[in-house]
Amino acid sequence: MRLALYQPDIPQNMGAVMRIAACFRVPLDVIEPCGFPFDEKRLRRTAMDYGDLCDITRHASWAAYLAGLRQTPNRLVLLTTATNQNHTEFAFAPTDTLLLGRESHGVPPEVHAAADACVRIPIARGLRSLNVSVAGAIVLAEALRQLGEFNGKTEL
Questions:
Q1: Which CATH number do you get for residue 96?
Q2: How far, rounded to the nearest angstrom, does the alpha carbon of residue 124 sit from its chain's CA centroid?
Q3: What average pLDDT does the segment 121-132 reach?
Q4: Is residue 140 assigned to a domain?
Q5: Residue 91 — pLDDT band, cuts 50, 70, 90?
Q6: CB–CB of 88/123 below 8 Å?
Q7: Residue 31 clears pLDDT 80, i.e. is over it
Q8: Separation between Cα atoms, residue 30 and residue 51, nearest integer Å
Q9: Under the phi-then-psi rule, with left for phi > 0, alpha for psi from -120 to 50, and beta for the rest, what region is 145?
Q10: What DSSP state is assigned to residue 62?
């Protein structure tokens, strides 16, 4: 299981996702360009003392990331509001990569089309979406629960 951020544009959200990745012991892929200077020292500070515990891989572009991903057994699962597939009704696999879009614009059509699956978090009618880091944590926790790796009784 992995998390991936597509061209993050809010450094505080990236810091929060770094903390989530560290706490759940999953690697994080950052697909650049970022909407802010990618300064690891500053970002690790944003992630507080969890930044040094986060396994981050940087990718220069979407094309570079996708080329590398397609050489692995990982399935790309996009978190999006543009699907009817609820995250709790989706069967996650250990080799899944959960892709989070930009806070400001989500992902473009070509990224959406490259996803092997799309899931959404049901929220109250009339509201648009959750914060990207919150959404990532919710879906990651459900995926790990399904895989028996996060049951609240033992540490990962």
A1: 3.40.1280.10
A2: 22
A3: 94
A4: yes
A5: very high
A6: no
A7: yes
A8: 14
A9: alpha
A10: H
Report the amino acid identity of residue 90. Answer: F
Which residue's entry shows tokens 């028996």?
Answer: 148
Q: 155: which 2 tokens? A: 């540490």
Q: Would you list the DSSP string of 87-117? A: GGGS---TTEEEEE-BTTTB--HHHHHH-SE
Contact predicate 144/20, CB 8 Å? no
Indicate left, alpha or beta for 121 from its phi (over 0: left) and psi (-120 to 50: alpha). Answer: beta
In whole angstroms, what is the distance from residue 75 CA to residue 118 CA? 11
Asked whether residue 73 is assigned to any structural domain, the reply reads yes
Its pTM stands at 0.91
Kindly report the average pLDDT of the chain as a whole number: 90
Which tokens in the block code for residue 35? 């909407």
Q: Is residue 155 part of a domain?
A: no
State which H helix or E strand residue 35 sits in.
none
Q: Which domain holds residue 58?
A: 2-146
| Pairing mode of beta strands 75-79, 56-59 | unpaired
Give phi and psi for 106, each to the nearest 5: 65, -130
Q: Tell whether the model's pLDDT for residue 43 goes beyond 70.
A: no
Count of domains for the chain: 1
pLDDT exceeds 70 at position 41? no
Which residue is it, tokens 């069967």?
Answer: 91
